[in-house]
Design a protein that fits this description.
110 residues; 0% strand; elongated
């Protein structure tokens, strides 16, 4: 998922949890799937941010020279303005873009 181009809202909204859980049929299972997906998105965003910030990192140990890197500041501001990973995961869930499976239910079917 390209979180930079997501249609997810960056504001908190009230959502009908019962309607969101219709594909699964269980509110708690839906929350578990969305929360795990939000963790995956969060880890991906952090790795992207760390990788971009490493390009501009300076490794000098000189305490006298306080150095602001404007590129790092702009990259950090961009990532701060992005929607939170939980909002991205909910938007992905609403668009049926989340793949999930429940091994317990698969055992019952066999």
């Amino acid at each position: 998922m390209d979180y930079r181009r997501s249609a997810a809202s960056s504001n908190t909204e009230t959502r009908d949890v019962m309607k969101l859980s219709e594909p699964v049929g269980n509110v708690y299972e839906m929350v578990m799937v969305v929360s795990k997906r939000a963790n995956q998105i969060s880890i991906g965003m952090k790795q992207d941010l760390d990788g971009k910030l490493q390009e501009f990192a300076s490794y000098s140990d000189n305490l006298e020279e306080v150095f602001e890197n404007h590129e790092q500041i702009e990259i950090s501001r961009f990532y701060e303005k992005l929607p939170k990973p939980s909002l991205l995961a909910i938007q992905e869930w609403k668009e049926n873009g989340t793949y999930y499976r429940n091994p317990e239910k698969e055992k019952e079917n066999f």
